[in-house]
Amino acid sequence: xxxxxxVGSHSFRDRLVLPAxxxxxxxxxxxxxDPVFLTLLTAAHHVPPESHGWIVGATQGGMALGSVTAWVxxxxxxxxxFVLAAxxxxxxxxxxxxxxxxxxxxxxxxxxxxxxxxxxxxxMASAAQNRPSxxxxxxxxxxxxxxxxxxxxxxxxxxxxxxxxxxxxxxxxALAVLxxxxxxxxxxxxRRYPALPRPDALPHRRVRSVNPLECRAGSTRRRRSxxxxxx
Length: 231
Fold this sequence. Notes:
Layout: H1 2-27, H2 34-45, H3 52-72, H4 79-98, H5 102-130, H6 132-161, H7 163-169, H8 171-189, H9 212-230
Helix pairs in contact: 1-5, 1-6, 1-8, 2-7, 3-5, 4-5, 4-7, 4-8, 5-6, 6-7
């Protein structure tokens, strides 16, 4: 009976963890495919190579800002905010296909990074809360697998359909995150992190204050009784 309850508890936690692991892996996809992404961006919009560092920096800076925002204001963020973040990442992906100027493109990629930073931090926190030991390893493994597959397939799509269509396929990651949030929002997207109990809500225990002189007197009495016993 107890074993059945434990197995049921693990399966329920797995149902909570798996969507969060999938979202965190997709949100962290961009750093793993940046070399292929920049090659496609140059082929589609003739972006000069000297702008590649600025574009990558804008994306990663946005992810850092989104992660810090989700970390600091986690308790005050409603679940619908992350649905909007997934939608914003999808729109930014579509805008990347159609905008080729360097400065607007950097702003678009920064917005994309902010959205993905929010999604990654929230999903990772939810996964680690339910299964701390395996969540980070699962996200790292799945992100490596997805980024490897995407990096191999994107040049093939570019050769067959053109670089713009290859960039368009990257929007599927944000679309998958949006679908995952909408489907599992009831379970974890709107999940609030547990707040620490207030001091007045904790059970009160009467703690007797200890007098150092009493401790010293008691220690002296114990030493004397021990010496008498030896005699």
